[in-house]
Write a structure and sequence with these properties.
Elements lengths: L5 H16 L11 H8 L3 H13 L3 E4 L3 E4 L4 H25 L2 H15 L12 H15 L5 H16 L15 H13 L3 H24 L1
Length: 220
């Protein structure tokens, strides 16, 4: 039987997740029950249900006697995360291309179009929640046809954690020499052309370049 607080918990989970991904809750920040209750107008019981879900998804950590924190970040962790993400996500993409049908192709192109039309930065200069949602959906759709659902879930969890790094120390993945929109276009085009090798190579370069620029931004 689902928890009575399920619907409420789902809403709070979605808000907390969005605040972590957009940087409103900073990496390593303590998720104190009192502050969270006030911020989200929620009970302790709901928080006790929601926070372990964030831990399972890799967006928070639980420390004995210390409670919960937003997942901390470091260059070493980012490098390990990137290596693992490339390994998992490219395999899921290769399988998705092999099994995708015409409906999947249309979904890839639709999600790509939506992402291209969504502003990446909000009025406060932060990564926009709408863009994060469109970006997550685009990458999720690319993997949607992969028949191994566990592989897809792992890939999506790793990608969620990688989004936290966009806001780390104002580290930025922008570069005058980089065209992120074109990168997304090349991945999508290769996928619907059923050129798995090219799609995988484009995705790998896309992920690794983001990491390179994030580290350069933080070190600068």
């Amino acid at each position: 039987m689902a928890p009575v607080s399920g619907t409420r918990a789902d809403g709070v989970h979605a808000r907390l997740r969005a605040d972590i991904l957009c940087g409103a809750l900073a990496p390593g920040e303590k998720l104190a029950f009192g502050r969270l209750q006030e911020r989200y107008d929620v009970s302790t019981g709901v928080l006790r249900e929601v926070l372990p879900r964030l831990v399972e998804q890799g967006l928070a950590v639980s420390e004995a006697q210390m409670g919960f924190r937003v997942v901390p970040v470091s260059v070493l962790d980012l490098l390990e995360l990137t290596e693992t993400r490339v390994f998992i996500e490219t395999e899921a993409l290769r399988r998705s291309i092999a099994h995708g049908d015409l409906e999947w192709e249309s979904a890839v192109l639709d999600s790509r179009h939506t992402l291209a039309r969504t502003p990446a930065v909000d009025a406060d200069g932060r990564v926009a929640e709408e863009w994060l949602s469109a970006h997550s959906n685009y990458h999720s759709v690319l993997l949607r046809a992969c028949p191994n659902t566990r592989l897809v879930r792992i890939a999506e969890n790793l990608r969620d954690v990688s989004e936290v790094y966009r806001c780390w120390g104002l580290g930025d993945n922008k570069s005058a020499d980089r065209d992120v929109d074109a990168e997304h276009e090349r991945i999508a085009a290769a996928a619907v052309d059923r050129d798995a090798d090219r799609a995988v190579d484009e995705l790998r370069r896309h992920i690794e370049l983001t990491t390179t620029l994030l580290i350069a931004g933080v070190e600068a």
